[in-house]
């Protein structure tokens, strides 16, 4: 069998050879980009996924020959800059991914291009700031500082200045910072009896993530309340840094390694003690499940963490299959428009959030399975804001179609983007974990 469509084999990713000097050799990079782009040009199946492929095809169609040889290689960077590493082309569209002999991994080729660009020092201050989520969060969530930052992020004059000086679009609604961070305020209950199931560990460790710690700690508190209600002992990871996904998307792979060195030892200790590790941000979960194991394929601790890492709803639905999840829901949610983010879809765990929401009596779930267009820091940038809104337009329309009581996404940033794109709506924006807490009748 030579294509995905005719093969029973799943897509298989190769380890990322990022420490090989050839990885950063620009002529060799361009040669591989030329090989892959020519195959993409002959296929064009991914044209509707993002703006990277349309830009590639426009460059070819507008070139001197109508073929790839008519495109200046320096313009290849325009394609790489539009890839935000959602992985959807690899996982759902491309028929030529390995084990096909053409061996196409478009996202990791674009990651290589970003790494070469970063190595050259061709990175803006804005991108360094946006990808330093821990440092920015610790500073911006300090009391008084948080109020000042939040006020500036809503002030038209300040936003215009940020647009002109930094390239952060003036119209992009930014997440607020919360001075009551999650970690020091989490009410953890580890006293419940451990009840292991056939598929699940009966004890959970929470890796909070930068976003939960500094922006929306309520999501983390709701996760704790849900686990406590289900009598699952909880442990907060002793110490943590950013998972590394923002630096990965920037191409700063050395920074990813440094963050991995800080994060993996305490996580591996918990994994080896039998904890299921939960993170409420799909990109962070994916980082530990997929990207770090591909960057460090021979690291046993990285593998142990990957095997113990779960999306919260993946874990809860497995708990339900083990007959150990409480379903004593007391509050119907009405009509919920639920968006599945790309970094959750590519984990291949199924639609677990949808399954759980549909278990709640008096709840109807409208599922939207399409990229929202925000994509980490990409949709914040001035040069990509309009494109991010264009990509999200079908999602905005589908989310609004059922006149929902709630709009929700496992990715809190995507949910904010969708809320902005929907405009005037009576629907409340709530994370799925918050909806679960409401359905349980928990305060």
From TrEMBL:
InterPro entries: Cys_rich_dom
GO MF entries: 4 iron, 4 sulfur cluster binding; metal ion binding; oxidoreductase activity
Cysteine-rich domain residues: 204-287, 336-412
Coiled coil residues, start to end: none
Record keywords: 4Fe-4S, Iron, Iron-sulfur, Metal-binding, Repeat
SUPFAM superfamilies xref list: 4Fe-4S ferredoxins
Listed name of the protein: Fe-S oxidoreductase
The species this protein was found in: Nitrosovibrio tenuis
């Amino acid at each position: 069998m030579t294509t995905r469509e005719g093969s029973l084999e799943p897509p298989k990713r190769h380890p990322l050879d990022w420490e090989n000097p050839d990885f950063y050799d620009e002529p060799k990079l361009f040669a591989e980009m030329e090989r892959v782009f020519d195959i993409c040009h002959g296929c064009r199946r991914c044209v509707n996924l993002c703006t990277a492929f349309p830009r590639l095809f426009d460059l070819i169609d507008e070139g001197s020959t109508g073929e790839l040889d008519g495109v200046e290689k320096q313009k290849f960077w325009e394609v790489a800059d539009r890839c935000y590493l959602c992985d959807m082309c690899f996982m759902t569209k491309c028929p030529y991914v390995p084990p096909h002999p053409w061996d196409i991994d478009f996202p990791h080729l674009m990651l290589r291009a970003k790494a070469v660009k970063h190595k050259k020092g061709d990175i803006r201050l804005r991108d360094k700031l946006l990808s330093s989520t821990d440092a920015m969060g610790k500073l911006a969530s300090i009391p008084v500082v948080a109020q000042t930052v939040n006020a500036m992020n809503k002030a038209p004059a300040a936003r215009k200045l940020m647009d002109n000086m930094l390239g952060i679009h003036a119209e992009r609604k930014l997440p607020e910072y919360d001075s009551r961070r999650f970690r020091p305020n989490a009410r953890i209950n580890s006293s419940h009896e451990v009840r292991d199931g056939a598929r699940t560990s009966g004890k959970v460790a929470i890796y909070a993530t930068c976003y939960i710690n500094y922006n929306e700690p309520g999501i983390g508190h709701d996760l704790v309340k849900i686990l406590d209600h289900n009598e699952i002992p909880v442990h907060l990871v002793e110490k943590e840094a950013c998972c590394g996904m923002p630096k990965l998307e920037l191409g700063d792979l050395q920074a990813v390694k440094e963050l991995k060195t800080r994060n993996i030892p305490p996580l591996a200790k918990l994994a080896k003690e039998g904890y299921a590790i939960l993170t409420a941000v799909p990109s962070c979960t994916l980082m530990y499940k997929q990207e770090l194991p591909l960057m460090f394929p021979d690291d046993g601790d990285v593998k142990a963490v990957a095997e113990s890492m779960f999306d919260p709803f993946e874990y809860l639905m497995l708990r339900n299959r083990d007959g150990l999840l409480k379903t004593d829901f007391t509050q119907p949610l009405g009509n919920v428009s639920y968006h599945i983010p790309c970094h959750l879809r590519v984990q291949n765990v199924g639609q677990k959030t949808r399954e759980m929401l549909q278990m709640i009596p008096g709840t109807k779930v409208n599922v939207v399975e399409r990229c929202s267009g925000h994509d980490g820091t990409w949709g914040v940038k001035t040069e990509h804001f309009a494109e991010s809104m264009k990509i999200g337009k079908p999602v905005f329309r589908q989310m609004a179609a059922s006149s929902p009581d709630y709009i929700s996404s496992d990715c809190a940033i995507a949910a904010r983007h969708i809320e902005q794109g929907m405009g005037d709506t009576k629907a409340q924006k709530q994370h799925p974990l918050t909806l679960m807490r409401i359905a349980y009748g928990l305060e």
